Amino acid sequence: MVSSEASDSRTRSGSGHHESCKGPGAQPGEGSPARLAEVKQPISAALAGPYGHPWHPLLVTVPIGAWIASLVFDVGSYVVPNGGYLVQGSRWLIALGVLGALAAAMVGALDMLSIPRHTRASRTALVHIVLNLLVVAAYIAGFLWRRGAESGASTVGVGPLVLSVVAVAVLGLSGSLGGRLTFRYGVRVADESTQLTGYRDVRSEVGEETH
């Protein structure tokens, strides 16, 4: 009887530990290892990037950097005298960002296809991509708006400037959702056994190579 009760206690304890490892917010029976494994694999290694090294995080640096730099140029046109060169530079940075965003979106869409439907991750990915498309549309509109403005202007118009500020704010929100997909839901992140290879003590390996 004592042995049976001890066994039951260990079972309950192990079950509780297993549930606690799922993290806050997890529900019993929610998700499955098979589903998680799916989102870690690329749809196409050539188009979306190999396992553990997706292209999407690399490509998004182009629009993010270009659009933030464009906003800095916009503000700078009000600070420095004769800032017409900043106005023109800002406009072409917007164009560069749009091209980079379209490339990142195509690759990101491939990663989205690996996410099982009707899940929190798929809903987050959908909002993420919709926000990104709104940002791209805003910058295309801003580019055309600036094109129609008077040439040789030394400062960016207030309207295009406000549009860029709003677009960067929405971009930041979308980026936070992208971070959730990666760091909370593990989309295109290598499994833990692969990650552990980066934490092995390499001193013995170095010693073996030198002998």
Overview of the molecule:
The protein has 211 residues and is mainly alpha-helical. The protein is built from ten helices and no strands. It has helices at residues 2-20, 33-40, 45-48, 56-59, 61-79, 84-113, 120-148, 158-184, 192-196, 203-210. Helix 5 (61-79) packs antiparallel against helix 6, helix 5 (61-79) packs antiparallel against helix 8 and helix 7 packs antiparallel against helix 8. The radius of gyration is 24 Å and the shape is elongated. The model is unreliable at 1-29 (pLDDT under 50).
Features:
mainly alpha, 211 residues, 10 helices, disordered N terminus
Topology:
Layout: H1 2-20, H2 33-40, H3 45-48, H4 56-59, H5 61-79, H6 84-113, H7 120-148, H8 158-184, H9 192-196, H10 203-210
Provide a count of the helices. Answer: 10
Structural class: mainly alpha
β-strand percent reads under 5%
Name the helix and strand elements from N-terminus to C-terminus, one letter apiece: HHHHHHHHHH
Rounded mean pLDDT is: 82
Oligomeric state of shown chains:
single chain
Number of strands: 0
Shape: elongated
Distance between the termini: 59 Å
- Radius of gyration, taken over Cα atoms and rounded to an integer in Å: 24 Å
The portion of residues assigned to helices is: over 70%
Low-pLDDT parts are 1-29
**Strand count, sense and closure of the main sheet?**
none
